[in-house]
């Protein structure tokens, strides 16, 4: 759904970036008391036979060993156009789950997510085809993101140059399975970053690139923000978050522990983790 313009006030007084006095800020993502639950067959029931499964279906009962993982618990925030928002928190705190729920890839158990336009989630696991060449993946990836064939052709060289894949030889014409994980992540980032996004969500992509690439991608994130989008960045690299984001959401055990300006939240987080 499209979200209406709202005045530049925030209920809880937390400060985000891009706020200019008196100018209305445009929300791009609204999460309202969002809960996300995974249901996992823990195997505790042990009865894996087809007859047992059929009986469960007929009785409409969950399997005996079914376990629930409450990965996101009552998270609420409003993201605005022009913000770059870092998502931090310990392993398993719910960062990736939150992004997937915003992208519409996981259903909300309770609460709601509203987004303006279709958010694009760029994860290190984004679906590129390992058996196809980098070249084919750039074309397919571009089309999958909604670029026209002409746009992909026009931006093809920029994408390859940005990724730096060809710096050490003609890798772009080789299958993706011959790439290191860093090279593959760079190509994924470069394809996604070639398009302007209303909401771009990046899951750890920067952590896998080398220093030079990190600098380039941080600069591109700043550009994407200027082009009026909202960027979410999940990272365990505190420096990347500091260099790229002006607001940080800190999740812990699925709950939003803090939401505020980068430095305030990072200081509290570093105290919590002992750096
Ligand atoms: N597909 C899944 N099925 C069941 N549980 C899951 C699944 N994916 C994640 N979880 C659980 O949900 C919780 C949150 O996981 P999530 O991956 O969102 O955390 P994260 O903050 O992104 O972690 P990390 O920093 O390690 O990447 C964890 O307890 C995890 O075990």
TrEMBL record:
SUPFAM superfamilies: P-loop containing nucleoside triphosphate hydrolases. PROSITE patterns: ABC_TRANSPORTER_1, ABC_TRANSPORTER_2. GO terms for molecular function: ABC-type transporter activity; ATP binding; ATP hydrolysis activity. SMART domains: AAA (SM00382). Gene3D superfamilies: P-loop containing nucleotide triphosphate hydrolases. GO terms for cellular component: membrane. It holds the Pfam family ABC_tran. Residues 52-272 form the ABC transporter domain. Residues 1-25 are annotated as: Disordered. Keywords: ATP-binding, Nucleotide-binding, Transport. Belongs to the ABC transporter superfamily. This is ATP-binding cassette domain-containing protein. It comes from Streptomyces taklimakanensis.
């Amino acid at each position: 759904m499209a979200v209406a313009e709202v005045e530049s006030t925030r209920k809880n007084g937390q400060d985000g970036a891009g706020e200019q006095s008196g100018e209305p800020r445009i929300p791009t993502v609204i999460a309202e008391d969002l809960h996300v639950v995974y249901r996992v067959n823990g195997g505790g029931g042990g009865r894996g036979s087809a007859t047992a499964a059929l009986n469960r279906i007929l009785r409409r009962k969950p399997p005996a060993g079914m376990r629930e993982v409450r990965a996101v618990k009552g998270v609420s925030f409003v993201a605005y156009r022009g913000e770059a928002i870092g998502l931090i928190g310990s392993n398993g705190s719910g960062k990736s789950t939150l992004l997937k729920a915003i992208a519409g890839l996981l259903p909300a158990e309770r609460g709601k997510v509203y987004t303006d336009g279709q958010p694009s989630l760029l994860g290190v696991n984004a679906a590129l085809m390992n058996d196809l060449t980098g070249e084919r993946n750039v074309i397919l990836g571009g089309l999958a993101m909604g670029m026209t064939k002409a746009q992909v052709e026009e931006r093809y060289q920029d994408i390859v140059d940005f990724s730096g894949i060809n710096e050490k030889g003609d890798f772009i014409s080789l299958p993706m399975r011959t790439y290191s994980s860093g090279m593959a992540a760079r190509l994924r980032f470069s394809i996604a970053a070639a398009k302007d996004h209303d909401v771009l969500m990046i899951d750890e992509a920067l952590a896998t690139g080398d220093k030079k690439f990190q600098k380039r991608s941080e600069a591109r994130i700043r550009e994407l923000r200027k082009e009026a989008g909202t960027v979410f960045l999940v990272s365990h690299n505190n420096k990347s978050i500091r260099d790229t984001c002006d607001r940080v959401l800190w999740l812990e055990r699925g709950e939003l522990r803090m939401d505020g300006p980068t430095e305030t939240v990072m200081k509290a987080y570093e105290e919590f983790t002992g750096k």
